[in-house]
Specification:
The chain has 202 residues and is mainly α. The chain is built from five helices and three strands, in the order H-H-H-H-E-E-E-H. The chain has a three-stranded antiparallel sheet, with no helix packed on it. Helix 1 packs antiparallel against helix 5. The chain is elongated and about 65 Å long.
Length: 202
């Protein structure tokens, strides 16, 4: 089983997904394209967790780079050195996949929490900055008539729901791809051991 052939496809997909996560997370910092809310520290706690930049972004770029490198090395084992056999390639593939699983898992969890707790905004009733939808446990997502409770930033509920949902979906896709590659790596390693034993046996 050549790990590099399928890994390269997964690697390029993860590369695109990671870049999209980074962009989506950056947009969360600037509701409606305005920078003043970030400078005034009026962003939600889950916006500042860097789940798209760090988790779904840079931590997923690591397996993406490793998987692409496996293909470029032509499945020759340890980054082109055939004397290493395929053990190094299998180990690198599995370890990188687990890094991606951790990063994408973090992105999924924070995105889900961000959707559940709702945005941090200035409300017209309390006349203060708070989380007006925390107690709804995500129920506000289907109660559109209550979204107008947030006065500032304008359309912050739509902004957060859209971007957190995008990050949740992107993180889930990254998680699945990394999990698939981890399984392929383990199976590839087992297959390699079996083939080696068969070749050694008289």
């Amino acid at each position: 089983m050549c790990l590099g052939r399928g890994a390269s496809c997964i690697g390029y997909k993860l590369l695109v997904l990671a870049l999209l996560c980074i962009v989506a997370n950056i947009l969360l910092y600037f509701p409606n394209g305005e920078t003043r809310f970030a400078s005034e520290h009026h962003l939600g706690r889950y916006v500042e967790c860097l789940h798209g930049i760090l988790g779904g972004g840079f931590l997923v770029l690591i397996p993406a780079a490793v998987f692409i490198a496996l293909h470029n090395d032509g499945c020759c084992g340890c980054f082109g050195h055939e004397d290493c056999g395929k053990s190094c390639a299998v180990l690198a593939s599995v370890l990188a996949a687990f890094v991606g699983i951790l990063g994408s898992g973090y992105c999924i969890i924070i995105s889900a929490l961000g959707l559940s707790h709702g945005p941090y905004c200035f409300t017209h009733l309390e006349r203060s900055w708070l989380y007006p939808f925390t107690e709804s446990s995500g129920g506000y997502l289907f109660e559109y008539n209550k979204w107008s409770a947030c006065q500032e930033p304008q359309n912050i509920v739509q902004w957060n729901v859209t971007l957190f949902s995008i990050l949740l979906v992107l993180g889930a896709m990254e998680f699945i791809l990394c999990l698939v590659q981890a399984v392929r790596g383990v199976l590839g390693g087992l297959c390699g051991l079996c083939c080696t034993h068969e070749e050694v046996s008289p």
